[in-house]
């Protein structure tokens, strides 16, 4: 009578290291040999068959979990994850609800492109020429110097937006399973970039003053090789670094000068808060990113990156195999708007509008019995006494689409009791109705959660 092969033989999992075992399972999944919901062998069974330590299999399963390929289900074991859509920013297609989840800037507040388009001209740009338009480089040098100071060497790079810069900066520094310190809760694009890159996210809590000192200390103790943070208008919380918090984080990072520190100042010209950097003049590996998408429009796929010369050189090498440069036409359009008095005034007006609408919404929610403090940015981070998913479902029944906080969380359940609500295009009447509906949604969500 033939022996029944065990699970790992059937799955043909191989490898002697955690990375090799994880790659073997990944191949089975990619080839369709392991369908969603399929069980992986128990740790002891697979370790015995492969002749490796059980901790090696545990590490392999952890890599797969972090990549979103498998999930641990307690007594049900480790199973291939269902293919669910990755949460993304942007409009919800096909919805009849009032969309307060998209996180988009107000198109009416984006400066008109026509004047800039009518002024750009010049000779064609050919292969091998400088990748940064010289006039934009001169303007950006002054812009970035005002932020980082004159006491350090820096080089500029132009990328196709902030997310493009972050992906390339991490790729030129890290290898698979390297640890990255991320704010928790975290901006969706940054979280997705780290997970899809195969890196290991280490959660650092964010409070009203930004990334916490104790959280960053724990992340550095865990061996992170990169730190990604938002100095102003942190998405989703709206927190900005205080001068005191930034100084404390700088002191902490002084003992780790070769850890890559990336500051994503995505709100820059729109921010109502001062810029405080965590990067000291002696730090060896750093980058400051400023995208134009929030104030010149998401389709302006351009970000200025200031970094130490070595990081800039590595970033340039990452650009060469693909999009060697960002279109000079796009660079010239951006420069025209960044230096046009009318466009700059429009950005300033947009900044004031976003801040005023956040304050108005916070006041309306608080008056309705849902206390909220207005932060910086395009949205409000609304704390709840009930699970956010249940509250968002109740708001959907009342015609509102909002973003539950658990989509931004790395670990724990803290953000699962928050909503991110983009309020800047709501009138006072809309805000009053939303506040009333939010107050009504909370007890309804509590009843639903209790019944469940």
Automatic annotation (TrEMBL):
Gene: yjiR_1
The keyword Hydrolase appears for this protein: no
Domain HTH gntR-type: residue ranges: 15-83
Keywords assigned by UniProt, alphabetized: DNA-binding, Pyridoxal phosphate, Transcription, Transcription regulation
Pfam families to which the protein is assigned, alphabetical: Aminotran_1_2, GntR
Protein's UniProt keywords contain Transcription regulation: yes
PANTHER family in UniProt: HTH-TYPE TRANSCRIPTIONAL REGULATORY PROTEIN GABR
Name the record gives this protein: Putative HTH-type transcriptional regulator YjiR
Family of this protein: In the C-terminal section; belongs to the class-I pyridoxal-phosphate-dependent aminotransferase family.
Gene3D superfamilies per record: Type I PLP-dependent aspartate aminotransferase-like (Major domain), Winged helix-like DNA-binding domain superfamily/Winged helix DNA-binding domain
An annotated Gene Ontology molecular function: DNA binding
Species of the source: Microbacterium laevaniformans
């Amino acid at each position: 009578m033939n022996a029944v092969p065990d699970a790992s033989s059937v799955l043909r999992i191989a490898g002697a290291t955690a990375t090799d075992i994880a790659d073997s399972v990944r191949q089975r999944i990619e080839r369709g040999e392991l369908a969603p919901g399929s069980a992986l062998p128990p740790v002891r069974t697979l370790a015995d068959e492969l002749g490796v330590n059980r901790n090696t299999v545990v590490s392999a399963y952890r890599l797969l979990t972090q990549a979103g390929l498998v999930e641990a289900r307690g007594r049900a074991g480790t199973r291939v994850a269902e293919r669910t859509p990755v949460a993304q920013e942007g409009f919800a297609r096909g919805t009849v609800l009032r969309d307060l989840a998209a996180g988009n800037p107000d198109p009416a507040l984006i400066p008109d492109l026509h004047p800039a388009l009518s002024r750009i001209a010049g000779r064609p740009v050919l292969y091998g020429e400088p990748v940064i338009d010289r006039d934009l480089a001169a303007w950006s040098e002054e812009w970035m110097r005002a932020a980082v100071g004159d006491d350090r060497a820096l080089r500029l790079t132009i990328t196709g937006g902030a997310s493009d810069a972050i992906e390339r900066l991490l790729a030129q520094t890290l290898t698979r399973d390297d640890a990255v310190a991320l704010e928790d809760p975290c901006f969706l694009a940054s979280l997705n970039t780290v997970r899809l890159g195969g890196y290991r996210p280490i959660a650092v809590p964010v409070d009203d003053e930004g990334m916490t000192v104790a959280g960053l200390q724990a992340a550095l103790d865990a061996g992170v090789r990169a730190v990604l943070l938002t100095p102003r208008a942190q998405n989703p919380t709206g927190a900005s670094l205080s001068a005191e918090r930034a100084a404390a984080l700088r002191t902490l990072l002084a003992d780790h000068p070769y850890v890559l520190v990336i500051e994503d100042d995505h709100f820059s010209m729109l921010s109502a808060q001062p810029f405080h950097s965590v990067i000291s003049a002696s730090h060896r590996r750093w980058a400051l990113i400023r995208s134009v998408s929030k104030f010149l429009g998401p389709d302006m796929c351009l970000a200025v990156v200031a970094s130490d010369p070595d990081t800039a050189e590595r970033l340039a090498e990452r650009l060469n195999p693909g999009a060697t440069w960002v279109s000079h036409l796009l660079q010239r359009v951006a420069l025209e708007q960044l230096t046009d008095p009318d466009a700059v005034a429009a950005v300033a007006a947009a900044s004031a509008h976003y801040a005023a609408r956040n304050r108005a919404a916070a006041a309306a929610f608080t008056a309705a019995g849902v206390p909220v403090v207005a932060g910086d940015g395009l949205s409000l981070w609304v704390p709840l006494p009930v699970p956010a998913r249940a509250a968002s479902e109740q708001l959907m029944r009342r015609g509102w689409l909002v973003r539950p906080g658990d989509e931004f969380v790395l670990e724990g359940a803290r953000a699962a009791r928050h909503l991110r609500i983009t309020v800047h295009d709501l009138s006072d009447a809309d805000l009053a109705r939303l506040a009333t509906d939010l107050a009504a949604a909370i007890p309804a969500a509590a009843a639903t959660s209790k019944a469940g």
